[in-house]
Design a protein that fits this description.
Layout: H1 8-53, E1 58-61, E2 64-67, H2 79-89, H3 101-111
Antiparallel strand pairs: 1-2
């Protein structure tokens, strides 16, 4: 397709309509799945209660095996207190090692090069906003 000859208004209109249709289908899908997801969650609770009340980690039967697993999540309630603890106690093992995208971009902007040991890539993607009032 020759991009200099497209009807940009038409293509943006098509893009917005298609995005809206996808959103509509996702919303409908979420609504249609809600009773099934609710029942699945309820049955999961029943099965977990069975495992707990019988002091089992797993139970096998003709229909399959039910087992329990621990799902853990960690977040920072007070980032400053956490960092103070890390630095004061040399407890670096409590942290993940990864580059901060915002800081790396600022470093590149300032130094015109990457920090040592860091890869950086960027790609453009299209974004479309609906016209106001539509």
């Amino acid at each position: 397709m020759d991009d200099t000859r497209i009807d940009i208004n038409l293509r943006v209109e098509q893009y917005v309509k298609l995005r809206d249709k996808i959103s509509e289908i996702k919303d409908r899908h979420k609504t249609e799945l809600k009773p099934f997801n609710d029942m699945l969650e309820h049955l999961g609770g029943v099965l977990l209660q069975h495992l707990e009340s019988t002091n089992q980690e797993a139970s096998r039967c003709a229909s399959g095996t039910v087992y329990r697993s621990l799902d853990e999540s960690v977040s920072l309630a007070d980032p400053e207190a956490f960092m103070d603890y890390i630095t004061n106690n040399n407890a670096w093992e409590l942290m993940d090692r990864r580059a901060n995208k915002t800081a790396v971009k600022a470093f590149i902007e300032e130094h015109k090069s990457l920090p040592p040991g860091v890869n950086y890539s960027s790609t453009f993607k299209v974004g479309v906003r609906r016209a106001s009032g539509k």
